[in-house]
Write a structure and sequence with these properties.
It is a single chain. By secondary structure, this protein is of the alpha/beta class. The chain folds into 2 domains: 225 residues, Aminopeptidase, CATH 3.40.630.10; 97 residues, Beta Barrel (Elongation Factor Tu (Ef-tu), domain 3). The chain is 26% helix and 26% strand. A hairpin with a 5-residue loop joins strand 1 and strand 2. It is globular. The relative contact order is 0.19.
């Protein structure tokens, strides 16, 4: 087994987190990714929609390994009379998962303003009990307050902020005792695992036994990421988080092989191949099912009518779509299973 470069993987994750990429706003992260691929010695091609594809070599029966780099976030819905921003979700972000988070507002003119997500009213000391008991709702009692001296809608508009501007949450990355805590472990940590595998393939000059493409998508969080595939693709393997929970087998220290998500069972034969690869390589894995609100970039490819096999793996991850947490052991196990499968 080729060793896992933990330091590279964590640093790649940090670098990807530094580029805001709320779904639809991919340019900064795409440019960073292409630079990182160049550092590894790879050339990339891009899709019209922004995806990044890399040929890893090999011959016959192409396999696409995909991870996504778009993040859930917010968009300016309208500007309130007091100059604060009414917002709506981009992807599956709920108000209770982003209250009091710091944000960056990206305008269409390329300016960036900082702010925070707040309740309205926002102070416990001067808020009636019945208002405090009301759940946060983007439509009525949650707003983004800019770190600017604005008191009216006109003053906010004078900054260049307007409806349709994108709002990215501060990731807040922390590494502690092997645990990685951050927004957007889904899926930038998994993209970092794929980059770590690509680093190994390049540095060790590994001749892959089949044709393999790496595909970094930017629209997974809204359901249409990896839907333009290289010609003659036979299989697609998604690397995505495996949410933990009371009824789940997934564990932050292990890699999960997905048996089913909220839409489809994964391909029986391909899933069994992954299971056998894990057993043969001694990888710490579990099988798991993710319902009712989960899918990967395999799903839109299948729904689009591609005749291919599909499977998914990923590290156990807590607090999905919130302030997420995984462990370096889970990333290592995901890397080990990916490498074992690529070399079967």
């Amino acid at each position: 087994m080729y060793p896992f470069d933990k330091n590279y993987c964590v640093e790649a994750f940090r670098r990807l987190l530094a580029a805001d990429s709320t779904t639809g706003q991919y340019e900064e992260c795409q440019a960073l990714l292409i630079d990182m691929l160049g550092e590894l010695g790879y050339e990339a091609s891009v899709t019209r929609k922004g995806g990044v594809i890399v040929d890893l070599g090999g011959e016959g029966e192409p396999l696409v390994v995909t991870a996504h780099l778009d993040d859930i976030g917010l968009m300016v819905r309208h500007i309130n009379k007091d100059g604060t921003l009414n917002v709506c979700a981009v992807g599956g972000l709920y108000p209770f998962y982003c209250m009091m988070e710091n944000v960056r507002v990206h305008t269409r003119d390329g300016n960036v303003f900082t702010g925070s997500v707040c309740r309205t009213p926002n102070s416990i000391h001067v808020t009636e009990e019945e208002l405090r008991a009301t759940l946060p709702d983007f439509r009525t009692n949650v707003c983004v307050v800019l770190d600017e001296d604005v008191k009216t809608a006109d003053e906010t508009r004078a900054l260049g902020v307007e409806t349709g501007d994108m709002i990215a949450l501060e990731p807040r990355f922390v590494e502690a005792n092997g645990y990685l805590k951050s927004h957007f472990i889904d899926d930038k940590a998994c993209a970092a695992v794929l980059l770590a595998a690509m680093k190994t393939i390049k540095e060790q000059r590994i001749a892959l036994p089949r044709k393999v493409y790496a595909y970094f998508a930017f629209y997974e969080e809204i359901g249409h990421g990896t839907v333009t595939l290289p010609e003659d693709t036979c299989d697609i393997l998604a690397i995505d988080i495996a949410p933990t929970g009371p009824d789940q087998n997934s564990d932050e220290h292990k890699v999960s092989i997905f048996a089913k998500d909220s839409r489809f069972p994964y391909h029986w034969g391909m899933t069994n191949e992954l299971r056998q690869a894990a057993i043969s390589a001694g990888v710490d894995y579990v099988m798991d099912i993710f319902t009712p609100h989960y899918g990967t970039d395999c799903d839109p490819a299948i729904a689009a009518g591609y005749d291919l096999r599909h499977a998914a793996i990923g590290p156990g991850t807590a607090n999905s779509h919130g302030y997420e947490r995984t462990h370096i052991d889970g990333l290592k196990a995901t890397y080990e299973l990916l490498m074992a499968y690529l070399l079967m």
